[in-house]
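A protein record pairs a chain with a discrete description of its three-dimensional fold. The following entry can be read in just this way.
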Amino acid sequence: MDLNQLMNTMLSSESVESIGKRTGADRSAVTSVLASVLPQLLSGANSQAQDETTGFAQALAQHQGADTSSLSSFIANADEQDGLGILGHLLGGNAAQTASAVSANTGVSQNQTSSIMSLAAPLMMSLLGQQTNASQQSASGITSLMGSLLSGVDSGSIISGILGAVSTDTSSETAPAAGSTGKKKKKKDAEATGLLGILKKLWG
């Protein structure tokens, strides 16, 4: 799995719809939050992998055996408390502030934003964990894994994939009511921020 495949899985219709069912958020809201926060989570995972004292290898091992063959089943049974713990590690204790900022940028309520993030985090860790094997459980092996993941990046495909997912989800929603232009603009700005974050944080 490369970063393109990871992002496509995280932003797939099955993932987005399942997170929406758990959180009560519509598809456009879920997609906006994910597009905004996933680059930050991946950046945090990459930083954790570089530091052998963080226990990131053990954390991946704990999520390695999760069955993600059915994303809807995985998300329906995902533990939000586990997700909150993961967010605390990946975001350096700034999970609440990040949720607040993402909420402000997307126009999605902070409660829904926090729940979306808490469900996305275990899925991302499980997908990353499945790429490990016995020889990669050391910190150096995990660092190599993350390096391999990021080296396979096709920025054009990732951007197209995210924009495609956002476009598909948005087109399925009903026409906006009068006065909702500002919220829509916030969502578009957040999506753009997410894309720029991928480029800035992962390619320097």
Q: What stands out?
A: The radius of gyration is 16 Å. The first helix runs from residue 3 to 10. Residues 152-157, 165-170, 172-181, 190-204 have pLDDT under 50 and may be disordered.
